[in-house]
rRNA adenine N(6)-methyltransferase (Linderina pennispora), 299 residues
Amino acid sequence: MGGDGGDNARHFGPMFNKDLGQHILINPLVSQGIVDKARLKQTDTVLEVGPGTGNLTVKILEQAKKVIACEADARLAAELTKRVQGGPFQYKLEILHGDVMKRDLPFFDVCISNTPYQISSPLTFKLLFHRPIFRCAVLMFQREFAMRLVARPGDALYGRLAVNCQLYSKVSHVMKVGKNNFKPPPNVESDVVKIEPLNPPPPIDFNEWDGLVRIAFSRKNKTLAANFKSTATMEMLEKNYKTYCATNDMMVEDDFDIKGKVLGVLASAGFTETRAAKMDIDDFMKLLVAFHDANIHFC
């Protein structure tokens, strides 16, 4: 992954597994820039996802107390082990071999990753739900995914991904990284983002939150009223309402009308004509509370 091993990367090149999203970062300046943005302390334990041949790893090892590197490819894990063997970093590096998405994450202070692009979204949320909360993550992503993460209300790429990620963290753009900084070069440009989890996290049921956000962004440039009027949405909300009433020993009103109830919540909260593409985190929170006050739930 990181930067100063051009010969190493050339030697290892034919073995790269594109199915695993292996694109080794070979520019030492980019590697150093990523490490600098993490603002590592000498006491830090760093989780690195997808270390590859270790170009980025060795730069992290220079500054951190310990690196736990999670690598899915046994050949790259062996290469990384060989690279630090007998040197000053040997006992500061722990290698976990296997799929990071199929294991519990260890304790860490900072995560740094040249992320295999096919796990970008699941890894992001695995990190955000990890406890105890870590200080920050500096992550390399495919450009479009990175731009979707950092998008703000009104931006073309603003959507469910941005809202869900920004509910739990401050997300900022760090740098663009051209495809020629990798070996083999990927088909797309890349960007680095920094994620700083909110501590404490908001006391919100994520499944409820995501249920609301999913409906709101089903057609993000339509009004919320238009999106909520869909038959499938109304049927789901009616079922949830009746389940909630039954669970809490509440009677369903004789004149109960889910459509009227839902549209009434939107109107009273002032969101009938609002479009999700222009709503911020506070808007979604306000709307979720309004629905819950009316005993309407999303999961």
Notes: The CA atoms of residues 267 and 273 lie 9 Å apart. The chain has twelve helices and nine strands.
